[in-house]
Each structure stands twice: as structure tokens, then as C-alpha cells.
Amino acid sequence: LVALIRHWILAGTRIISDGWAAYGQLPNIDGGIYMHDVVVHDAYFVDPVDRTIHTNNVENMWMRAKRQLKRNFGTSRDLFPTYLSEFVWRQRVEEREDFYSPANPAMGGCDHFLDSSQVDSPSP
């Protein structure tokens, strides 16, 4: 677990987890380079003192991912990371109303495909 955290999570990141015992070592990794808050679901789902400490967002995302991936009949175990990455990407795109705007740099300079004035008429 520690190796995965070091690899995927930036130093200084605030990690909010449930009360799983394996997470207990998070504050000690590399001298405390991660902030760690815990939500003990047996006691509460949102910290009564600090309402920003909860796991609702990640649990909601995981619930929607499982639901979507189950709909894809024949989901391959080998391709699961790819399916999950696509799901997360699509969730982020849906949140951006301007994603398909020609002015959006994420379109990768493809705005010329959306400009019909640049299309040549077919020759007679």
C-alpha cells in the first residue's frame, strides 16, 4: 500500500479514508508528507466537526463506475483499468459544458473541423 501511495499520490496531498487499519500508517510515510483524516463509518459518515472530511465523493464515483461497467457485457478483467480510466475521463467531460467548444484547447486544435466556411465545395 505504501509503495502505491508514494507512486500515485503527490506529497502534501490530503488523504481522507475510512477506518481500515492499513491506512493507519499514512501519517508516518516519509516523515509525514501526507495529511490524513479518517471517517469511521461505525460512528459517522461525515465528520461532525469538519464537514469536509467524508468519503462520499469517492464512494459515489465508485458506485456509478461499477454500475456502468456491469452494463458492458463481457467486460474483460485485463482491460478493466482501461474501462475505469475511460469512465473517469467521461465523468470529467460531462462536467465541462465548454468541452466541445472550438475555443477549448482540449480539442487539440481541431476547431478547423468545425468551421464549415473552410470546407471546399466538391467540383462539378
Salient structural properties:
alpha+beta, two-stranded parallel ribbon, 124 residues
Q: What does this protein look like?
A:
By secondary structure, the protein is α+β, with helices and mostly antiparallel strands. The protein is 31% helix and 8% strand. It contains three helices and two strands. It has helices at residues 2-8, 56-71, 80-94, and strands at residues 14-18, 35-39. A two-stranded parallel sheet has the order 1-2. Helix 2 crosses helix 3 (80-94). The longest helix is centred in the middle third of the chain and has 16 residues, at 56-71. The chain is globular and about 45 Å long. The N and C termini lie far apart (66 Å). Residues 109-124 have low confidence and may be disordered.
Helix share, percent = 25-40%
CA gyration radius, whole angstroms = 22 Å
Number of H/I helices? 3
Class per helix and strand makeup: alpha+beta
Poorly predicted runs of 5 or more residues = 109-124
Q: What is the 3D form?
A: globular
Instruction: Give the tally of β-strands.
Output: 2
H/E element order: HEEHH
Major sheet description: 2 strands, parallel
Sheet with the most strands: spatial strand order? 1-2
**Cα separation of the termini:** 66 Å
Quote the average pLDDT: 79
Strand content: 5-15%
Furnish the topology, listing elements before pairings.
Blueprint (H helix, E strand, L loop, with lengths): L1 H7 L5 E5 L16 E5 L16 H16 L8 H15 L30
Parallel strand pairs: 1-2
Helix pairs in contact: 2-3
